[in-house]
Please model this.
Amino acid sequence: MCPSCGLLLVLLLFLLPFFRPSPVAAQDEGGSEAPPVRSEDWRERTTAHFIILYAAGYEATAEQYAGFVDRIYEEVATIFAHQTSTPITLRLYPTEESYAAVNPLAPDLPGIVAHADFRRREVAVILPVTAQQTPTEVQNNVRHELTHIVAADLSGNRLNTGFQEGIAQYVEEYTPVLERKVATLSRAREQGTLLAWDDFDDRDKVYGKADVSYPQTLSVVAFLIQQYDFAAFRDFLTLSAQSSGYRSALEQAYGKSPADLEAAWRRWLPAYLDEDYRHNALVSYDLSKARQLLDLGRYAEAQTELEQAIDWLQTEEPSSARSEQSAATLAEAQQLLERSKAGQQAENLAIEARTALQHAEYARASQLVALARAAYTTLGDTRQDAILAAYAERAGRGLRAQEYLVQADDMARNLKLPEARTASDAAAAEFAVLGDQVRMDQALSFRRSLDNRQQLIGTVLVALGIMGVLFSLWGRWFLREEEAW
Model:
C-alpha cells in the first residue's frame, strides 16, 4: 500500500465518529460545482459564545445564525445546568462539495445536515441542505449538535450513539418532522423491526437504520424523562462517565435493571405513539418535582423549585415555538407557587400555635389552631390533622383550667369557699396534666389562700363565739348583782 493511501485510510477512520446521518434528507442538489473553500477563504463572525466561520458572500447567513446561536447556547446550558466551554466554532459550509472535500465519508452518508465534533468543539452545518428548512428547523440543527457536545461533556464522551441521538432530538423544538418520525416508529413497532436497547451501542446499526433508530431513540429518552424526571436522566449522563457501559449507568440512575426499563418502555410506547409524543418536559418545563414536593408537604423546597422554574420560563423568547406551552406551564407554576406559600403559611400557623402552648397562651393557641386547620383544609392537606387536634385539645384544657380559676375567684368573693376550693382543685389538676407548673402552682396557692381564709373565718367565728359566751356570762353576773342590790 502506498504511503498516501495509508494516510488516507487513517484519516477516514479518524473522521468516522464525527458523522451522523440526519433523518432530514438533502433538499437542494443544485449549485454544487463551486470549488471547496480554502482555509484562507473563511470569514469570521464572533458572538458571545461562538466563532462563526463562513465563506465570502454568505455574510447575511452568518448574521442570521449570529442572531440566535447565543440564545440556543443559553437554553441548552439551562436545561443541563452545564455551560460547555467556549468559544464553539460554527462552520457554515456553502456547498456539499466543500463539506465533502474535508469530510471524505460524507458521500457515503446521504442526508447529512450538520454534525458536531466534541474534541474540536465545532458544529458544522451544510447550508444547501438547510435551504428548504423552516427557521425552527434551522435552529434545531444547532440545538441538536450543541446538545451532542454538552452530553459528551457530562458523560466523559462515553454516552453511546443511541442515547446521544435520543437526547439531541429531545432538546429540539417541535416541527412537523416529529409527526413523520412517530408514523415511522409506529410502523416499525407493528412490523417488529424495533432495535434492542443494546443495539444503541452499535453506531452502524443506529446510523444504518436511521429511519427507525432516530424516532426510537427519541421515544426512549422521552420515556426516561417523562416517566421519571430530567434530573434522573442527567444523573445517567454523568454516571456514564464512570460506568462500564450504559447498562450500569442506567441501573445506578434509575434503580432498575435496563431489562426492566426496556420492558416498561415497550408497554408505554403505545400511549406515546397515540398522543404523548406531543408532550416535551423540556419545552413545558418539568414541574413534576415541584408537584411531588407539594404532595409531600415540603412547601419551602417546592417554593425554591417553582421560583427557579418561573425564572426560566419567563426568559423564554416571545417568538419561540415553545412560548404557547411555556405560557400554560408558567401559569401552572405560578398557581403551584401560591400553593407552596399557602402551605408555608399553614405551617407557620401550626408552629405559632405550638409556641403559644409552650408559653401557656391558651386563648391565642386556640385561635392559631383554628386558622391552621382552615389553611390546611383549603390545601387539602390532612397530614397535620392529628397534630392540630392534639394542640386544640391542650388549648381547650388550658382554657378550661383558667375558667375554673376565674369561677373559683368569683365563688370566693361570694364566700362560697367549698365550691371555690373544688374549682381551684380542678384547675390545678388540669394544669398538672398540661405540664403547666407555673399555673398549677398559682391554682394551688389560691387553694391554700382559700384554706387560710376559711381557717381565719373559722378562728374569727370561734373567737366571736367565745366572746358571746363570755358576754353572756358577764351579763348574767351583772344582772344578779343588780338584783341583790
Summary: The longest helix spans residues 437-484.
